[in-house]
Specification:
Length: about 70
């Protein structure tokens, strides 16, 4: 999930590798495996899958949130 978050942040595989101090080839393999497991053909499709399945949250969209305290007063 950490790699999906970094992909969502717009990082390239090389930048992800540097940030996580792993090889670019390892990141390439992880991303490729995620494509296979999710049926995604590219990074955009992977991020759409992740948002549809509640794996990532961007700008308050598709985020789980706790109910407001005012909601429990009703």
């Amino acid at each position: 999930m950490e790699i999906i978050d970094l992909v969502a942040d717009g990082l390239t595989n090389q930048e992800i590798a540097e940030k996580l101090t792993i090889s670019k080839r390892t990141v390439d393999n992880h991303v490729s495996n995620m494509f296979t497991k999710t049926g995604s053909k590219n990074r955009v499709a992977l991020l759409n899958w992740a948002m549809d399945h509640g794996k990532i949250c961007r700008d308050g969209f598709n985020c789980c949130s706790l109910p407001d305290e005012s909601d429990s007063d009703s």
